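Chapter review: from sequence to fold.
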Amino acid sequence: MARLGLATIFLVAGTLKVLDPAQTRLAVRAYQLLPPELVGPVATTLPLVELALGTLLVVGAFTRWVALASAVLLLVLMTAVAQAWARGLAIDCGCFGGGGAVAKNSTHYPQELARDVGTLLLALWLLVRPRTSLSIDRWLRADPGVPLSPAGNPTR
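The token string follows.
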């Protein structure tokens, strides 16, 4: 469930950003962290990374590495939101499309960070328990001589 939950989050977020690249650039620019020449490449790359992570999570391929990459990405995004809040920027995070400047009283930084902490916990769980019965990882690493627990981990 953790793997598919995290996959869904990344696939939805990436899809919504890919469908509106101009808005994604606006959202990235609103954080005021990058020089103008990097806004476009980051706005283009971020949704593609999210889609790649989500796809790998759905099939359960390289789950531990994908979970690590997901955790790092989430920490970077959480840091960006926290710095915007600390600097008094009034922006929508753009996490699920949209993004950009909003009215001062329309920010939702605590809720966005709480959601991201929950998402980070999913990634951390997958670092500890990456294999499940319905994953490519389990099939690729299965050793017929080693019984697996219900979580897909070797029992010896």
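Two observations follow directly from the output. Residues 2-129 form one domain. The chain has one domain: 2-129.
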